[in-house]
Amino acid sequence: MPDELLRPTIGAGVDMKVRPWRLMSQTYVAFFGGVIASTVIAFLNARRLGVDAAKRRLVLLTGAAGLVGVIAVFALLNAEADVTSGFRVAVRVVAVLCCLVQLRIQRPMDRAFQLRGTDYGSLWGPGLAVTIGGAVAEAFILVIVARAL
Fold first, then answer.
1. Distance CA 35, CA 68 (A)
2. Distance (Å, rounded) from C-alpha 4 to C-alpha 14?
3. C-alpha–C-alpha distance, residues 46 and 33, integer Å
4. To the nearest 5 percent, what fractions of the chain are helix, strand and coil?
5. In tens digits, what is the pLDDT along the chain, a chain of 149 residues?
């Protein structure tokens, strides 16, 4: 078994020109865009940070579990096909909790990035696009679920 201390922190497949986004900025995307938006941003950022493929799959799995959670909350709280404030709060809680798990997966490589002393990239453009797209996609999925119920 090779010594972990001697293993390079940043893998050879990491593009050093592409700057990742701040981890805590991803929580805004989760809050306003939902689980799908949060998962897309977390997956892209994990790739930018050089997180290995197994952990990137774990980010996707966490997002899928969060989406199942949102659908379950929708099925439980949406008996009259009316979107209530309780439902909206519950969906945001699920999205932010899912995001926090995804941030935990990215954190070791983010710390390695911080040690390089490079600035983070801006999340404004991609964040807004994914927030809008993720919210629309999540709403579309919930409409399909509502019709199935």
1. 10
2. 19
3. 18
4. 70, 0, 30
5. 566 665 555 555 566 678 999 999 999 999 999 999 999 999 999 999 999 999 999 999 999 999 999 999 998 887 666 677 888 899 999 999 999 999 999 999 999 999 888 899 999 999 999 999 999 999 999 999 988 87
pTM: 0.87
Number of neighbours of residue 134 by Cβ within 10 angstroms: 23
Q: For residues 34 and 46, what is the distance between their CA atoms, to the nearest angstrom?
A: 18
Query: Cα-flanking dihedrals φ and ψ of residue 123, to 5°?
Result: -100, 0
Tokens of 104: 């935990």
Gap between the Cα atoms of 92 and 99, Å rounded: 10
Q: Which token pair is 14?
A: 């990491």
Q: Bin 121: left if φ > 0, else alpha if -120 < ψ < 50, else beta.
A: beta
Could you tell me the CA-to-CA distances from 16 to 7, 44, 117 in Å, in that order? Answer: 18, 15, 12
Q: Which residue type does 84 have?
A: T
- Give me the pLDDT at residue 4, please: 61
